[in-house]
Amino acid sequence: MIYNWNTKLWNTLHRRSGTTPTSALLLAGPQGVGKRAFARALAQALLCGNPQPGAVSCGSCMSCRLFSADAHPDLRLLEPASEEGRADGAEGHQEGGSILVGHVRALTDFLVIASQLAGAKVVLIQPADRLHPSAANALLKTLEEPPARTIFILVADHPQRLPPTIRSRCFRLDFPLPPRQVALEWLAAEGVEQPEIALAHGGFAPLTAMRLDRSGFPGRRRTLTDFFVSPDDPATLAAAVGPGELPLVCDLLQRWCYDLLSLRLADQVRYNPDYAEKLRPLADKADVSQLQTLIKELAVTASALEHPLNPRLVIEHLAIRYTRMILSQRP
User: Fold this and answer.
1) Residue 181 in this model has a pLDDT that exceeds 90
2) Domains, the chain, with CATH or none
3) Which of 11, 136, 189, 299 is the least crowded, having the fewest Cβ atoms under 10 Å away?
4) Closest CA to 121 of 131, 139, 130, 109
């Protein structure tokens, strides 16, 4: 599936030669813009026995049927164990887990034997930015002398994490965030009730926004944001937060504080336009230096979420910091 905002990229890629321009392709860009769906569509088109105008797959030949059943003998997928079983084209993923050297070495037999359907062979690696260093080194050896008629497709949210030696051997295709209006129209068509809010909290990536909307995010956001409007006992917030919701609290509070700072300095609300009237009186009394300090502290906390933390204590600490900042500014 090619999302409408990526159609131009598809056409640009295939206008170069009617097929992929190199034996290795790097799809790079922020999470939630359709890179995985693009990669699957590209892999299917490369394997298709009856490609259609525009270099798209026919969807009905034996190769396409095998591909749709995840049983194509000339396709290999490399991904962390935690990613296995993900729905086609899904964009979000949990941090943690790496693609190990054993995964790359397991490709040896696949790479040396001929294509079973007498066509191309495809290796899809996602997310490639989670290749373990030893796995990246093993892959580099293959990319230096790629097997004939074998295409490597690497998908990366953070391409800068890939070694320069691997990036230099790939044709890079950059996926930007789609225009805001295009994303809003797509989200509305998909049944998202508050497209503008979902898009802002999804980092302006439409697939991330849709995933948030379908995960119960709107209700949880209202519950937590109501505390930010009228902070009371910090323990109340900690008690209302469920297991595993520390990242959500950090994200929401960081964006709330950003909106307070943005209102204070530029009279703009980016993430919470539906709370603009309630944000304004808080912003008018907020101390800029305290806001900046809290935003930095939230960023540090977010960067440490993969380490063992006591979520309740962290949430109580952040709630106390925020409450003191807000209450100290009241007349």
Assistant:
1) yes
2) 4-174 (3.40.50.300), 216-328 (1.20.272)
3) 189
4) 109
